[in-house]
Design brief:
Layout: E1 6-9, H1 19-35, E2 38-41, H2 53-66, E3 73-74, E4 81-82, H3 94-106, E5 110-113, H4 117-129, H5 145-153, E6 159-162, E7 168-173, E8 177-182, E9 190-193, H6 201-211, E10 216-220, H7 227-236, E11 243-247, E12 250-251, H8 267-272, H9 277-285, H10 300-306, E13 317-318, H11 321-334, H12 337-353, H13 363-373, H14 383-387, H15 399-402, H16 409-424, H17 433-447, H18 451-463, H19 471-478, H20 480-496
Parallel strand pairs: 1-2, 10-11, 12-13
Antiparallel strand pairs: 3-4, 5-6, 6-9, 7-8
Helix pairs in contact: 1-10, 6-7, 9-11, 12-13, 16-17, 16-18, 16-20, 17-19, 18-20
């Protein structure tokens, strides 16, 4: 146990909960649970123009839905904040940033910069013309007090820049081993507080990590280039450097970086499509980590028991939708009947509300279908793709799909009529799968048809689909009257097509 271990996730409520944020939160959560440490959530909400309460709620609710609960932060237990280092929202910590900035100025480790946007742009263009990397030229770094006073008398308001020392900043990354970056690559002295007094990310994140006694900063690989700035600020403010662990990027299947413009990245979208929390937790954990065995299906508790930060991989983790659907199917098959029915019903109700089906079946009706659908569901929302034809009144049948490859329209009409006559001889009380198949096979043999062609025509006529659960179980679920009515309607539609 290591109660001095404190980790955090610090999302910005400027967009919905992202897969990358969820994976980072999960790894922090797992590390805290594995080591007996504390998991903190704080909100980086200083981007007032883009931050919204709706995005904040999406992030917090999404993490809770995934089962990723935090020990300190907003919305823990009752409404409000819980923890000894509150507040956990940056906009409520402005006084702390102002005090830290004043400390840096007093130590001459930061200074006001009065450069105008035009001056900075002119510097950038000059560097570009000379094929030099962009960096601050240091125009305001050596101003005297009198020169600063003169600029302020002219109405200029100074942003605050941090003095970047020359040399190399290095750290032993828990995931990436030794990393060293020369400070000449940081773009010169960087702004930590805007001229309007708004603190910037590189500054606030360090002040917050100091205040909240964060021992390990576990975040995405894209933050590696930011880490030297943060280490310099930790050193300047006299706070021990935390350990850093940079997780591999989540990539598209083709190896490109996953982005919300090109990929489905919002966790809410996966929830809406019927992915189980157990499957998403399981899959997110495997995006950069492995238990070191051939096991694929692990619960959150099992993963937390085995998780080791040192075993996180360095290379990018490719997001494979097919693999996620396979894993989701494995978890669907692990659910008991009542749990699965309760999780399916909201998706059936949503399909009815959207007009995709005509009515919502009872819990009992859904439970009776579980033997047919459980093995065929990649997601919960797929329930209406698999058996939605049971809950529609006007079935749409594509005439082209209705005619088997070896048949023509006339043969198909004949086959459907003969099938209807054959099935019509079976009573409601004996309408069972093992009673339906033999007479239809006998019909195909008498007519010289391949049974598969007849069965395909019946399948499409009664369901509108070429792939369904086993045909005769499907006809039982559909019922005698509806089966016969749909066979008749399909034959008539084929006649008039």
């Amino acid at each position: 146990m290591a109660p001095d271990i404190r980790v955090r996730i610090a999302p910005s409520p400027t967009g919905p909960l992202h897969i990358g944020t969820a994976r980072t939160a999960l790894f922090n959560y797992l590390f805290a649970r594995r080591t007996g440490g504390t998991f903190v959530l704080r909100l980086e909400d200083t981007d007032v123009a883009r931050s919204t309460e709706a995005f904040e709620r999406d992030i917090l609710d999404g993490l809770h839905w995934l089962g990723i609960d935090w020990d300190e932060g907003p919305a823990v237990g009752e409404r409000g904040e819980t923890g000894p280092y509150a507040p956990y929202r940056q906009m409520a910590r402005l006084d702390d940033y102002a005090a830290a900035a004043a400390e840096l100025v007093a130590k001459d480790l930061a200074y006001p910069c009065y450069c105008t946007p035009d001056e900075l742009e002119a510097d950038r263009r000059d560097q570009e013309a000379n094929k030099l990397p962009p960096r601050y030229v240091g125009r305001c770094a050596v101003l005297t007090p009198a020169e600063r006073a003169a600029r302020e008398a002219d109405g200029r308001r100074g942003a605050l820049r941090f003095r970047v020392r020359p040399g190399v900043v290095g750290w032993d990354d828990v995931v990436r081993d030794r990393v060293e970056i020369d400070t000449s690559n940081l773009g010169g002295d960087f702004v930590i507080v805007r001229a309007d007094g708004t603190p910037l990310y590189h500054f606030t994140v360090v002040v917050d990590d100091m205040a909240m006694r964060i021992s390990h900063v576990i975040r995405g690989e894209d933050h590696v280039s930011n880490t030297p700035k943060h280490i310099l600020l930790f050193d300047a403010l006299g706070y021990p450097r935390p350990a850093f662990a940079h997780l591999p990027l989540i990539l598209n299947p083709d190896g490109t970086k996953m982005s919300k413009r090109k990929s489905q990245t919002a966790v809410a979208d996966y929830i809406a499509q019927g992915f189980l929390r157990e499957a998403l937790d399981n899959y997110f954990a495997f995006l950069g980590w492995s238990p070191g065995t051939d096991e694929d299906v692990l619960s959150l508790d099992e993963i937390a028991h085995r998780f080791e930060l040192e075993k996180v991989q360095k290379g990018g983790a490719r997001f494979d939708r097919d693999r996620l659907e396979w894993l989701n199917g494995q978890w669907i098959r692990r659910l008991d009947d009542q749990d699965l029915v309760e999780r399916l019903l909201p998706f059936i109700e949503a399909a009815a509300a959207a007009g995709q089906i005509a009515r919502v079946p009872s819990e009992g009706d859904v439970r009776a279908l579980l033997p047919l659908v459980r093995e065929r569901l990649p997601t919960l929302a797929a329930i209406t793709d698999v058996v939605g034809f049971l809950w529609v009144d006007d079935l749409a049948v594509d005439p082209a799909a209705l005619v088997p490859k070896r048949w023509d329209a006339a043969t198909t009409r004949d086959g459907l009529a003969a099938a209807r006559e054959t099935l019509g001889a079976i009573t409601e009380t004996t309408w069972e799968a093992d009673e339906l198949e033999p007479p239809l096979r006998a019909l195909a043999e008498r007519r010289g048809w391949k049974a598969g062609d007849l069965f395909m025509a019946i399948r499409v006529a009664t369901t509108g689909q070429t792939a369904t659960p086993p045909l005769f179980d499907t006809l039982v679920a559909l019922g005698r009257d509806r089966t016969l009515a749909r066979l008749a309607a399909a034959g008539e539609n084929l006649h008039t097509a």
